[in-house]
Amino acid sequence: YxxxxxxxxxxxxxxxxxxxxxxxxxKEAYVIFCFGMSDEVKTTIIKNNQMGRIKVYPxxxxxxxESSLNILNDIAAIHGGSVLSSDLGITxxxxxxxxxPIGKKISFLKNxxxxxxxxxxxxxxxxxxxxxKRLENAQCQPDVRTDVLEKRIKNFTGxxxxxxxxxxxxxxxxxxxxxxx
Length: 181
Prior knowledge:
Order of helices and strands: EHEHEHHEEHHEHH
Strand content: 15-25%
Distance between the termini: 15 Å
């Protein structure tokens, strides 16, 4: 699969038009990791997936949930990629015109997503050490939630990364159906 990791919300189909067009032409699967998308974008992706025109799988995280704020960084780390951010002057429509990077393997399960790393065991250990140092520093500060960092560290193993979906996905059948598409 090809992937894009977006630190933000996709508000219009025009932002990902080229990605949808490439998926239609090449029949390659695309995974979009982001903090949400408008109903127009969701509906377009779902309908085109159902008709077999494209293979685009959005993974929308809740930006107001503290436990999912840094998940995009973990997803980027496991892919050996980076997060697109408008803070850096990057637009979604510009980036999806480029040849997007390729992920190794991803599995969509009922309560989580399993991503098989595109990086070496050494790079995974390095990221875990980075997270452990952040946890050590956070433990000295009373106003920092350490449980979020502990969960991120636990998610990383040598063979795969489990990304647990927020509970709203598991409770809301419509959202689960959208994710299944």
